[in-house]
Amino acid sequence: MDEYSNQEAAVLAAIQDILSGNTESYRVIVDTYERQMYHLALNYLASREDAEEAVQEIFIKIYNNLDKFSLDRRFFPWMYTIALNYLKTKYKKIKRRGSRQKDLQEDEEMERMPASDNPEEEYQHMETRQELRNAVDRLPDKYREVILLFYFQGMDVEGITEVMDIGKENVKSRLFRARKKLKEILDSGI
To answer: What is the pTM of this model?
Structure first.
């Protein structure tokens, strides 16, 4: 059994415990997925404060809907669907308010940044990454979502298919169109 299967089995056992009245078992779910949910929320909302708040709300929504989860399904895609639906709504509210702030954690930026002795190269890399984030923000929702899941969350096409509940070819098509649209946005320099 691989690590993912062990993780999924532990989470399913925790869900059974929770549904039997042992609410303390919910800690297993939070501990298992908190980091992934935070990264998803941070990539989606680009604000630490909004991401932290969103993660709390997402876990509350997951807990409140556990009785609707079927134990013969995989938990991860079900949970991601709840998270994405919440983040879409939250993103639209933030965008309407016009208060979307770009403050990704510096350590996360540094983690992704290639090691360099040249501060100018590092600055250029950070600037390029910010331009890319701005361009991704300008994509229509259905394209932004697949880009975030594929590139920022590292999900494969099959995982995106399961989470978004759309066909594999549809995911591939959206990725293709999203890349094309992203290139247009970046080339236009707007």
So the answer is: 0.73
The secondary structure of residue 66, as a DSSP letter, is G
Q: Which residue bears the tokens 């876990």? A: 59
Rounded to 5°, the CA angle 70-75-76 comes to: 155
The full set of domains in the chain, from first to last, is 1-102 (1.10.1740.10), 109-190 (1.10.10.10)
CB 133 within 8 Å of CB 151 = no
DSSP code of 43? H
Tens digit of pLDDT per residue, the chain (190 long)?
566 678 889 999 999 999 999 999 999 999 999 999 999 999 888 889 999 999 999 999 999 999 999 998 889 889 999 999 999 999 888 877 764 444 444 444 444 444 455 666 665 656 677 788 788 888 898 898 899 889 888 889 998 998 888 999 999 999 999 999 999 988 887 5
Q: Both tokens of residue 87?
A: 């983040």
Please work out, in degrees rounded to the nearest 5, the angle formed at the alpha carbon of residue 109 by the alpha carbons of 106 and 115: 115
